[in-house]
Amino acid sequence: MFARGVDMWKRHEKTLVFVSFAVAAVVLLSLIGRLFS
Question: TM segments (predicted)?
């Protein structure tokens, strides 16, 4: 059961990294938009 959970975590690791990058990009874009508007 524990090994299965580790396998699931490894499978979702890339998705979590992609989601965190997307959120960071959106926050940066909104901050830049406020600075230049």
Answer: 16-36
- The 10s digit of each residue's pLDDT in 1-37 is 577 777 877 778 889 999 999 999 999 999 999 999 8
Answer positive or negative: Cα dihedral of 10, 12, 14, 16.
negative
Number of folded domains in the chain? 1
User: 35 is in which domain, residue-wise?
Assistant: 1-37
Amino acid at 12: H
- CA 32 to chain centroid, in Å, comes to 19
The whole-model pTM stands at 0.59
